[in-house]
Design brief:
alpha/beta, 8 helices, 42% helix, globular
Length: 229
């Protein structure tokens, strides 16, 4: 077991002891936004889709979900300005069974679009609208944007932040690294926003599931986990 895994497991056990019963109020509403732009080929798309599914149903992620009393989650694929494809609508995850249900919905989801550019500003706008439709007003609101490039279509993230409601919303990023390091810096400077915002880096698409698992645990547990980096 790695040092990080030991730290994660210990923290989850501590949280479970502190919160043995489901919390009275929803702790987290989470919008997952997956890159489906033209820079993502079919194999890379499948690695993202299955990596996210594997991460959501991972026992340590499930333990974190149970420790905080359950979370609301929805997921969509984004690419161009008008290309947003719902992978699954809002679902309440509270245990292994409900997490596996969401994971299966991802595994069965088809690709929404092919050949469209990278419109991160529009993806953020769509995510904000979806967040406003969450079934409960949860204590924390997080948008999780994953991608491998910078905005090259439509308005930039800054315009989305000005035009749409991101009050009390944290936007985190998962960047799939490549030969060009500019997306990492772009996400740090222009995409992430709000209380405790951070980026997670996947070394490549094969590393996506690991990075997403780590990211989900941080998002579910909250800012108290930041020290475990």
């Amino acid at each position: 077991m790695t040092k990080w895994a030991c730290c994660t497991s210990g923290l989850i056990l501590a949280l479970t002891a502190l919160f043995p019963q489901p919390a009275a109020a929803c702790s987290l509403s989470l919008v997952l936004a997956m890159d489906g732009s033209s820079s993502v080929d079919h194999l890379e798309h499948d690695l993202q889709l299955n990596g996210l599914a594997d991460a959501l149903s991972d026992p340590e992620v499930v333990a974190a979900i149970e420790a905080v009393g359950g979370i609301w989650v929805m997921s969509f694929e984004w690419s161009g300005q008008r290309q947003h494809f719902l992978q699954f609508a809002w679902q309440y995850l509270e245990d292994a069974e409900s997490a596996e249900k969401a994971a299966n919905a991802l595994r069965k989801a088809r690709r929404g679009f092919i050949g469209f550019p990278t419109a991160i500003g529009y993806a953020l706008s769509y995510a904000s609208i979806q967040m406003s439709r969450a079934p409960e007003n949860c204590t924390r609101k997080v948008i999780d944007v994953a991608g491998d490039g910078i905005n090259n279509d439509g308005y930039p993230p800054s315009s989305a932040y000005k035009a749409f409601d991101f009050e009390g919303v944290t936007v985190n990023g998962l960047v799939i690294a490549g030969e060009d390091a500019s997306p990492i810096q772009y996400y740090r400077q222009h995409v992430i926003s709000g209380p405790g915002a951070f980026i997670e880096i996947a070394e490549d698409y094969d590393d996506y599931a690991r990075a997403m698992k780590r990211k989900l645990i941080r998002e579910i547990i909250g800012n108290g986990y930041a020290s475990a980096e």
